[in-house]
Amino acid sequence: MAVSNSTGQQQGGNRPNEALQSANPPRATIVVLDDDLLFRRGVARVLRSERYDVIEVDDTEQLAETLRSTPVDLIVADSRLSDGSDGWREALALARQHGHTKVLAMTGYDKDAIAAVGGFTDVEFVQKSGAGFNVVEAVEAALRSGS
Fold this sequence. Notes:
The protein is α/β, with parallel strands linked by helices.
């Protein structure tokens, strides 16, 4: 449960003793790109509970705006967005323009389904089914990776 400090700012989150940990700086800044509001918020909440600074966007235009104004360590990008664009490819192209920003692909599909619609499968990705805290492991691995 979140608690307020003496200045009225929110501290803490969903886990025991999280209010005590909130004084620590964020571990990294992550953008979650997904057009499914409920799923995006769920992923963001899990990542915030692990002390990541999370920015939520639902399209690549918002992602581009965010990258222009904010240093970002990692983009967690959905594969298919509601406008028909490939979130992975768009996020990867934008990340390359902004230096060392890494991209973690996320999808509800498996490799065969992605290939069947012409998507690229030569990247590591995390599947949406059962994402929960599994996304934390994938994020931590992506942040540790050299690429």
